[in-house]
Amino acid sequence: FPLLHLLLILLFLLLTLHLWGLQPVFVLHGNDLHLDIEKAVVLDKKTDFFWKFNTTNYVGKISYNKEAVLFDSYEGRADFFGHNYSLVLKNVKHDDSGDYTAVVTGGKEQRVGEFKVKVQDPVSAVNLTLTSSSSDSCNLTVTCTIVDLNISRTFKCDAHNCSLLGENLSSTDMLSSLIVYLQQDTVFCNHSNEVSWKNSTMVLKSQCDMKSGKIRCHRNNE
Ligand SMILES: *[C@@H]1O[C@H](CO)[C@@H](O)[C@H](O)[C@H]1NC(C)=O
Ligand SMILES: *[C@@H]1O[C@H](CO)[C@@H](O)[C@H](O)[C@H]1NC(C)=O
Ligand SMILES: *[C@@H]1O[C@H](CO)[C@@H](O)[C@H](O)[C@H]1NC(C)=O
Ligand SMILES: *[C@@H]1O[C@H](CO)[C@@H](O)[C@H](O)[C@H]1NC(C)=O
Ligand SMILES: *[C@@H]1O[C@H](CO)[C@@H](O)[C@H](O)[C@H]1NC(C)=O
Ligand SMILES: *[C@@H]1O[C@H](CO)[C@@H](O)[C@H](O)[C@H]1NC(C)=O
Ligand SMILES: *[C@@H]1O[C@H](CO)[C@@H](O)[C@H](O)[C@H]1NC(C)=O
Ligand SMILES: *[C@@H]1O[C@H](CO)[C@@H](O)[C@H](O)[C@H]1NC(C)=O
Ligand SMILES: CC(=O)N[C@H]1CO[C@H](CO)[C@@H](O)[C@@H]1O
Asked: For this UniProt entry, what is the primary localization, expressed as one broad class (predicted)?
């Protein structure tokens, strides 16, 4: 059934296009969420403006008289401005993650802003530790650890400098990403998500003697 396939592909494209239409917004848990409309809106007697949350919840409305009204569950925890339709949701919680749409209703509904909001916690701390230094070659291995994940990198040192063996390694899961990289003589491990980051650093001062292969590594781990 090639026609059916074609229809399915079309449906898929429409769905993904619709998802792309939602602008992603990331906000740190406990911070304020600012949402502004993307198109000019002029209300008349027959039209009202609403901020909607997900498909069935309404945050507030503005009517022709420009008065902004918040509905019960948002009263006291949001600011809503009748003159420019902006919404500020204060002290956001994880429950506030979801789709926010600004709509003008009259004879039909018109969307004037669409956001996919994700509330995130700050990332957890990282530890960077020296996990091995081979005495027979000038290689150092460091491991960067977060609660449930670790990545290791090996550095090759000569009498003056150390360099990363291979690419900067990074690891990303649904929630955050972890990257280890070398900048001058400092190894950085950076744990980040869209709203926060934490790092741990270690200074590698190679005093690798090419004859004996001895390495001295100064750690400066905060
Ligand atoms: C809307 O008005 C409020 C209050 O005057 C202001 O804080 C906010 O920045 C305005 N939003 C835009 C998009 O101008
Ligand atoms: C809102 O929708 C998102 C998915 O888009 C869902 O993950 C979330 O649980 C919903 N929140 C509420 C309070 O219904
Ligand atoms: C040190 O690094 C070199 C690559 O430059 C590699 O061939 C060697 O196996 C490494 N040695 C150790 C002990 O990891
Ligand atoms: C980091 O190191 C400190 C002190 O050694 C330890 O208390 C903490 O649990 C470590 N954190 C992680 C994510 O490994
Ligand atoms: C890194 O994680 C592995 C399991 O994935 C574990 O066996 C190993 O002990 C961890 N290393 C450190 C230094 O935490
Ligand atoms: C060590 O690094 C410095 C600066 O990056 C560079 O000027 C120097 O040539 C390097 N030395 C060696 C032996 O590679
Ligand atoms: C690793 O990342 C650092 C800092 O972002 C950059 O300066 C360096 O060029 C990168 N090295 C490689 C091999 O990607
Ligand atoms: C850590 O990563 C975040 C997100 O990519 C970036 O904004 C920040 O500058 C990085 N910090 C360091 C020290 O690499
Ligand atoms: C804990 C730690 O090492 N923090 C460092 C993160 O990186 C910045 C430089 O980008 C250092 O100033 C911090 O000390």
From this structure: membrane
pTM greater than 0.85 (yes/no): no
CA torsion sign for 70, 74, 75, 81 is: negative
pLDDT in tens, 176-199: 899 999 888 889 999 999 999 999
| Residues 6 or more apart in contact with residue 190 via CB below 8 angstroms | 126, 178, 179, 180, 181, 197, 198, 199
CA of 144 to the centre of ligand 5 (A): 10
Distance CA(5)–CA(99), nearest Å, equals: 30
Domains of the chain as residue ranges with CATH: 21-120 (2.60.40.10), 127-203 (no CATH)
Q: Is the CB of 143 under 6 A from ligand 5?
A: yes
